[in-house]
Design a protein that fits this description.
Elements (H helix, E strand, L loop, with lengths): L2 E7 L6 H12 L5 E7 L6 H11 L3 E6 L5 H11 L4 E4 L11 H11 L3 E6 L6 H18 L7 E8 H9 L7 H7 L4 E6 L13 H15 L2 H30 L7 H33 L7 E4 L9
Parallel strand pairs: 1-2, 1-4, 2-3, 5-7
Antiparallel strand pairs: 3-8, 4-6, 5-6
Helix pairs in contact: 3-6, 5-8, 9-10
Length: about 300
């Protein structure tokens, strides 16, 4: 069955040729597969290396973004342009070992799953990023009700049904590790050992990962808004109770109302709760504004294929 390997790239100049060699060694030299590189606004010679490779291997195609839109959008663009029955997404830095590709395909044939996800056995990203990633996945699953596979990666195989469903989703900030489980498709897992990054430096920083995580939580879960509402209501109830208490002291006792410290602390608490609620509301409005703003998810500046079927 024909397969397209979708590879998002951002400043991966030194990795293109070694990756191509490793893929050829893993899947063979037949015509049943294609490589689709998605250049995510690289500022080095990544696109030039891809074009050179295409002159030697007709199975190579490419999309080139106008600017850097992000890893997830690059994968989404690749899925929208995929015309084969299977698609496999993987990074260009060889941390997703091409030698595992036959295992993913074999697992699909064995299990009949529509999606086969590579699951990291070892961690290579550093202690802080690893711990924060695990915390986010647990938090995301708890708040959204969408169970993300622990240590799941974007090294994944999709059949035609899964490709069509993902390509049709109109997401301004796609988060595939949350979208895929939410579709309800049969998913299987293949554990793998991530390899060290071959060349260049990773462009997906901890800060950028955190921003994507916040957007994903707001997209998939109403829990932050519910928390803000509950805190706001609790603050109002406590405020009323405190007011009744001071009124009782003034009317039915001879004791004076204590100093203003307690009142100031309480007012500060209320103000904080109001600010928290406003922040959540404004954040949600920002997400809605981006969704309805009419801006394209990405802009393709150059391509060896036809136009984007979605007009993105």
């Amino acid at each position: 069955m024909a397969i397209t390997l979708i590879i998002p790239c951002h400043n991966e100049e030194g990795n293109i040729a070694p990756l191509h060699r490793a893929i050829c060694d893993a899947v063979g030299g037949g015509d049943g597969w294609r490589l689709l590189f998605v250049d995510d606004g690289s500022t080095d010679g990544t696109l030039a290396r891809i074009k050179e490779l295409r002159t030697r291997d007709p199975r190579v195609d490419y999309l080139s973004f106008l600017t850097n839109y992000g890893h997830q959008k690059a994968i989404l663009a690749g899925l929208r342009h995929c015309r084969t029955e299977l698609a496999l997404t993987m990074d260009a830095d060889l941390q997703h070992p091409p030698a595992v590709i036959p295992e993913l395909v074999a697992e699909r044939e064995r299990s009949g799953a529509r999606v086969v996800i590579g699951q990291r056995r070892g961690r290579q990203a550093g202690l802080v990023k690893d711990l924060s990633s695990r915390f986010f996945y647990r938090l995301f699953s708890a708040l959204s009700g969408v169970a993300i596979i622990p240590d799941a990666s974007d090294f994944a195989l999709y059949d035609r049904k899964a490709i069509d469903l993902l390509a049709a989703i109109d997401e301004r900030e796609p988060f595939l590790r949350g979208l895929v489980p939410s579709l309800g498709l049969a998913i299987s897992v293949v554990p793998y050992d991530p390899a060290p990054r071959l060349h260049e430096q990773p462009s997906y920083s901890l800060g950028r990962s955190a921003r994507m995580g916040v957007r994903a939580l707001l997209r998939f879960s109403e829990a932050p808004v519910r928390i803000g509402v509950v805190l706001g209501i609790t603050g109002v109830v406590l405020s009323c109770g405190q007011g009744l208490h001071y009124l009782y002291l003034r009317i039915f006792t001879d004791r004076l109302i204590p100093g203003q410290a307690d009142l100031m602390v309480f007012l500060s608490l209320i103000a904080s709760l109001i600010l928290l609620l406003l922040a959540l509301v404004l954040r949600s409005l920002g997400e809605i504004s981006r969704t309805l703003g009419g801006q394209p998810v990405y802009v393709i500046a150059e391509s060896s294929l036809g136009p984007d079927p979605t007009g993105g």
